Amino acid sequence: MIDPSSSRLRTTTKSAARVPAAAVVPMGRRPFAAAFRALVALAALTGIVFDAIDSHDLGRLFSYFTIQSNILVAVVFAWSAYRAWTARPPLSPRLTGAALLYISITGLVFHFVLDNDASGFSMTAQRTTLESIANQLLHTVTPIAAALDWLLLTAPARFTLALTGQWLVYPLLYLPFALTRGALLTPGTEGRYPYPFLDVDLHGYTGVLTNAVTFGLAFWSLALALFLLDRFRPDPHPLSNRISRPGARPLK
């Protein structure tokens, strides 16, 4: 004979397995995380606006990886701030990890390559006051702030190895975008290619492809480093991730 009580137990167990933890214990509001992320979004947006005010070519401005990555940061962090303030679950690591990787690329490439005369690809030039402020906001403030948010305000072990490959889709697509844009512009146009290492006039397509492979491998290494660090870094707020409080009775 079939024991009806055991059937009910199996059904209850399966149902419980399908119920997310957030449905058992509601998530709490995180006002500090919300305020910090709102400030990061504001910093990115301010840098973009200042650059746009001082630019005489918006098409060229918005072709830069720097601007595009900061637009993503502004959107993702504003959205994350809203979810933290309203006690909603965090955004997908596919999205937050992509924003972290791209803005990290922006900061590292700027400081070690574009702002470094010894790199061979420097873009140092005289800047106005607005450009200098925007430069610091977009290349220094937002990358550091995004890293701090990840390390101090985000639960660890959310990134997967598969995500490291998915995050590279946008940087890989940026190459044909930059080359196609440059090919459509008249030779000699200022800023025809957004970055010196993508300048076909200087390096030819073979040289640009070599540079792209080198940078692509570096970006993949950075993505893998973020994945590994995320797997082994300590939880910044372990108690808030428990389903029940220490010493509380078992869930029924």
UniProtKB/TrEMBL annotation:
Keyword hit for Transmembrane: yes
Keywords: Membrane, Transmembrane, Transmembrane helix
Residues annotated as transmembrane: 32-50, 62-82, 94-113, 167-185, 205-229
Keyword Transmembrane helix on entry: yes
Signal sequence segment: none
Organism of origin: Streptomyces gamaensis
Protein name: Pr6Pr family membrane protein
